[in-house]
Amino acid sequence: MIDKSFLKQLTDESKEVYEGVAELWTTVTHDDLLISHLIDVYYTHQYPMVNTHHKETFLGDFSTGKQEYCSSVLVNIILANAAVRVPMPPGKL
After folding, report:
1. pLDDT of residue 14
2. Residue 79 domain-assigned?
3. How many domains does the chain have?
4. 44 assigned to some structural domain
5. Residue 83 domain-assigned?
């Protein structure tokens, strides 16, 4: 598990934290801060190179629980993709 203080250091205060949505989309974790950070990592590093969906439409549905442009499968793919790009906390390598 990643230390929350380390995550807070990585998360820019201007970035949105999606509260209460983790359990709507994934069973891997219910940590909203971690989910928010991984979403940010994905849209910062992967999305600009591989634009597979409309970001604003996806995030709108993601944050409200709508399933028109968001699904558990898509959320888990995004989270898994971002997880391999997250720097590990010191001492966890």
Report:
1. 46
2. yes
3. 1
4. yes
5. yes
Q: Is 37 exposed, middle or buried (0-12, 13-18, 19+ CB in 10 A)?
A: buried
The residue behind tokens 């998360």 is 11
Range of the structural domain that residue 66 is part of: 35-88
Map tokens 């634009």 to a residue: 51
**Residues 29-87 pLDDT 10s:** 888 888 998 999 899 888 988 888 999 999 999 999 999 999 999 999 999 999 988 76
| Structure token digits, residue 30 | 């219910």
Distances from the Cα of 58 to the Cα of 2, 7, 52, 90, angstroms: 26, 23, 11, 33
53 is a domain residue = yes
Task: Tell me how far apart the alpha carbons of residues 90 and 63 are, in angstroms, rounded to a whole number.
Answer: 31
